[in-house]
Design goal:
Structural class: mainly alpha
Mean pLDDT: 83
Number of strands: 0
Main location: membrane
Low-confidence stretches: none
Largest sheet: none
InterPro entries: MATE_fam, MATE_MepA-like, MATE_MepA_subfamily, MdtK-like
Shape: globular
Membrane topology: Multi-pass membrane protein
Oligomer: single chain
Protein name: Multidrug export protein MepA
Subcellular location: Cell membrane
Distance between the termini: 28 Å
Order of helices and strands: HHHHHHHHHHHHHHHHH
Helix content: over 70%
Number of helices: 17
C-alpha cells in the first residue's frame, strides 16, 4: 500500500504542508455544514430572522456534541501515531479498536441523554418564546444523526494520522457537498423549512460516516479497525490525552451559550432576539477562522506524535516552526477580510440594514486581535500531539477563563453590544501565556521524551 506521506523520512517542510493543507481545507469545507444551513434558513421568507436565531441557539449545542468526537479522535490518534513511531503496529491496532468501541458507545449515550433534555437546555441557553419552536425542531431532527456525526468526525482522525490526509479531506468534502445540494431541496423545494435543513445535515453526515468506516475497515488502511482486545488502560489514556481538545471545543460551545444568555438577559424588548441573530452570523464567521486554523495545527499533530515516539526532537522543532508560519499566514488573511470586507459575508445571511450594521461591527471587534491566536493553537495542539495533555488543557482553559470573565464584566460596564470585546482580550492573553509556557517547557519535554 502506497503511503501518501512518510512521517519518518519525508522533508519536514513538505510534509507539514501536505498534511496541513488538506486538513485545513477539510475543516473549511466542514464549516459549510453550519454556514449553508444558516444561509438558507436566514433567507426563508417571513420567518428567516427568527429561524436563524433559533438555529443559532442550537449551534453551540451541536458543537458541544461534536466535541466528544474530538475527545476520542484527537485523543487516540496521537497515541496511535506515537506507537507507529515506535514501530509497534500491534499496539497501534489495539488503540484503534479501543477508540472505535469507546466512541460508538459514547455516541449512543449522548444522543439519548440530549434528546431527553433538549427542551430544558434550549430554554436555559437563551431561546425566547419566539425562537424556541425553530430551535426545538432543528435540534430534534439533528440528534437522529448523532452517531453518524461523531463517528465520521472522530474516526477520520485515525485516517489522517496514518498519513492519508487526502482521504480524510475527501470524507469531509463528501458530507459538505451533499449538504449543499440537499439543503435547498428540503428547505425550499419540499417546503419543510428548518426541519429540512436538519434532515439534509443528517443525511450528509451519514454519507461521510460510511466513507470513513469503509476505508478504515478495508485493506487500504495501514491500521484497520478490528474487534476485541479492549483494555481499560488504553481507554483511560485516550480520555486523558483527548481531554484537551474536548475541553477546548466544549468550552467554546459553553462560551457561546453563555454569550447567548448574556445577550438574552441584557437585550431589551426585541433587541435581544436581533442580537442573537447577529451573533449567529458572527459565530459562523469565527468558525471560518478557528476550524481551518485547528485543521492546520491539528492535522499536523501526527508529525509531532510520530517523531516524539521516534525520539527525534530536531524534526519536531522544525515542524513546529512551519506549523506556526502557516497559522500566522492564515490568521493574517482572515484578519484582513474581517476588517475590510465583512459585509460581503453578512449579506449571505441577511439584507436587513440594521442587522448588517451590528454584525459587521461585531466581526471587526472579534477579529482585531485574531493574528496572535495562531500562536496559542500551534502550542496547545503541539503539546496535545505529543501526548502532553496537562499543559495543553491548562493553556486552553486560561484563555477560556479570560473570555468568560470578559463576557460577564464588560457588558455590565459598557452595554450588551460590548460583549464582543471579550474575544480580542482573550486572544492577546492566550498568546502571551502560551508563548511563555512553550519557552519554559519545550526544552524539558523534548529532552525527556519518555515513552507514553
Amino acid at each position: 500500500m502506497k503511503i501518501e506521506n512518510n512521517l519518518d523520512t519525508d522533508k519536514i517542510g513538505g510534509l507539514v504542508w501536505r498534511l496541513a493543507f488538506p486538513s485545513m481545507l477539510a475543516q473549511f469545507v466542514s464549516v459549510l455544514y453550519s454556514i449553508v444551513d444558516r444561509m438558507y434558513i436566514g433567507n426563508i421568507p417571513v420567518i428567516g430572522a427568527e429561524a436563524l436565531a433559533g438555529v443559532g441557539i442550537c449551534g453551540p449545542v451541536v458543537t458541544l456534541l461534536s466535541s466528544f468526537a474530538s475527545w476520542i479522535g484527537v485523543g487516540g490518534a496521537p497515541l496511535m501515531s506515537i506507537r507507529l513511531g515506535q514501530k509497534n503496529e500491534k499496539a497501534a491496532q489495539s488503540m484503534l479498536a479501543n477508540c472505535f468501541a469507546l466512541l460508538l458507545g459514547m455516541a449512543l449515550v449522548i444522543m439519548t441523554v440530549t434528546f431527553l433534555l433538549k427542551g430544558w437546555l434550549l430554554r436555559w441557553f437563551g431561546a425566547s418564546s419566539a425562537v424556541f419552536p425553530y430551535a426545538n425542531e432543528y435540534l430534534s431532527w439533528y440528534l437522529a444523526g448523532t452517531v453518524f456525526s461523531l463517528l465520521s468526525v472522530g474516526m477520520n482522525q485515525f485516517i489522517i494520522c496514518q498519513g492519508f490526509a487526502k482521504v480524510g479531506m475527501k470524507s469531509v468534502v463528501i458530507g459538505a457537498v451533499s449538504n449543499i445540494v440537499l439543503d435547498p431541496v428540503f428547505i425550499f423545494s419540499m417546503h419543510i423549512g428548518v426541519k429540512g435543513a436538519a434532515i439534509a445535515t443528517v443525511l450528509s453526515q451519514m454519507a461521510s460516516c460510511i466513507y470513513v468506516l469503509a476505508f478504515l475497515f478495508s485493506d487500504r488502511s495501514l491500521v484497520p479497525i478490528t474487534f476485541g482486545g479492549y483494555r481499560g488502560r488504553y481507554m483511560k489514556q485516550v480520555l486523558l490525552v483527548g481531554l484537551s481538545p474536548f475541553l477546548i471545543i466544549a468550552s467554546d460551545s459553553v462560551l457561546i451559550i453563555v454569550m447567548n444568555m448574556v445577550i438574552n438577559a441584557y437585550g431589551k424588548g426585541g433587541r435581544g432576539d436581533m442580537l442573537l441573530t447577529c451573533n449567529t452570523i458572527l459565530q459562523s464567521f469565527m468558525l471560518m477562522i478557528t476550524m481551518p486554523l485547528g485543521g492546520i495545527t491539528g492535522g499536523t499533530q501526527t508529525v509531532l506524535g510520530y517523531n516524539y515516539g521516534a525520539k527525534r526532537p530536531d524534526r519536531i522543532r522544525k515542524a513546529q516552526k512551519y506549523i506556526l508560519a502557516l497559522g500566522l499566514v492564515f490568521t493574517t488573511i482572515m484578519f484582513i477580510i474581517g476588517q475590510l470586507v465583512p459585509g460581503y459575508f453578512v449579506q449571505i445571511f441577511t439584507r436587513n440594514p440594521a442587522y448588517m450594521e451590528v454584525t459587521q461591527r461585531a466581526i471587526r471587534v472579534c477579529t482585531m486581535c485574531i493574528i496572535p491566536l495562531a500562536v496559542q493553537y500551534t502550542i496547545v495542539d503541539g503539546f496535545t500531539g505529543m501526548g502532553i495533555a496537562r499543559v495543553a488543557v491548562s493553556l486552553s482553559m486560561f484563555r477560556k477563563l479570560i473570555y468568560f470573565l470578559g463576557m460577564l464584566i464588560i457588558p455590565m460596564l459598557f452595554g450588551v453590544e460590548s460583549v464582543f470585546f471579550a474575544e480580542p482580550v482573550s486572544d492577546v492573553a492566550a498568546c502571551i501565556s502560551s508563548a511563555a509556557a512553550f519557552l519554559l517547557l519545550s526544552g524539558k519535554v523534548l529532552g525527556d521524551n519518555k515513552r507514553l
